[in-house]
Amino acid sequence: EAVDIVKFLDDCIDELRYDLEDQGVAVDWDYAAREAVMVSVDLEKLKRTVVNIIDNALKYMDNEQKKLAVSLQVESEWITIAFKDNGIGIPEEALPHIFERFYRAEPSRNVSTGGSGLGLAIARQIIEGHGGTIWAESKPGAGTSVWIKLKRMTSEGAHKRDDSNPDY
Ligand code: ATP
Ligand code: MG
User: Fold this and answer.
1) Cα dihedral across residues 56, 144, 8, 21: positive or negative
2) What is the predicted ipTM?
3) Is 58 in the pocket of ligand 1 (CB under 6 A)?
4) CA of 95 to the centre of ligand 2 (A)
5) Which part of the chain is the Histidine kinase domain (predicted)?
6) CA distance 8 to 1
7) Which of 27-36, 61-70, 102-111 has the lowest mean pLDDT?
8) How far is the centre of ligand 2, averaged over its atoms, from the C-alpha of 134 (Å)?
9) What is the 8-class DSSP label of residue 153?
10) Residues of 75-93 as b/e, b for ≥16 C-beta within 10 angstroms?
11) What are 66's strand-pairing partners?
12) CA proximity to 5, closest of 162, 125, 130
């Protein structure tokens, strides 16, 4: 279905606002241009992906000044959403494995909230199922960033127009 990704992110963050506030997380979600940016996705599945990513940010922050920054980058054919936390981070050797099923990196195995190691595997399955990509970068002790890249919807008339082509 056609989803406006700007409104979608507004809604996701609104829905999670109480959880985030409860845990003392300062959220930075700012997207200056407010016009709709359409993406063809399964809304519930994309929401599941965002919840899984933000759930991790919440679970793996143990610092005083918890921060989560959500940002959206819009290009002509793609959109990229970034989720950046300043939590415990992921060891370099663990990073290539975090999207595997049941994989949990060393320090977070001890996090009392627990987990089964499925959240990011599900996220990857959903994003790749939509023809997108998902990846992460992290620095132990400094924080983790997760990106989702999805193809923008090109509606009729929004296709690249070639005026030299009389058939257009
Ligand atoms: P589940 O999501 O099934 O409850 P989980 O959170 O352990 O369990 P994933 O969400 O798939 O599983 O994440 C895999 C592992 O990647 C985590 O166990 C953790 O080690 C690491 N990880 C993921 N996101 C973060 C993050 N934001 N900060 C630190 N570590 C993270
Ligand atoms: Mg998780």
Assistant:
1) positive
2) 0.99
3) no
4) 14
5) 1-154
6) 12
7) 102-111
8) 14
9) P
10) eeeebebebbbbbbbbeee
11) 25
12) 130
Count CA within 13 A, CB hemisphere, residue 2. Answer: 6
Do residues 141 and 90 lie in contact, with contact meaning Cβ atoms separated by under 8 Å?
A: no
Classify residue 103 as exposed, middle or buried by CB count within 10 Å of its CB (0-12, 13-18, 19+): middle
How would you classify the pairing of strands 66-74 and 25-29? Answer: parallel
Interior angle at CA 46, CA 75 and CA 79, nearest 5: 5
Which tens digits make up the pLDDT trace of 6-33?
A: 999 999 999 999 999 999 999 999 888 8
Q: How far is the CA of 129 from the centre of ligand 1 (A)?
A: 20
pLDDT in tens, 114-147: 789 999 999 999 999 999 999 999 999 999 999 9
The model carries a pTM of 0.90
> Do 140 and 91 touch, CB atoms closer than 8 A?
yes
Q: For the packed helices 5-22 and 43-59, what is the interaxial angle rounded to 10 degrees?
A: 30
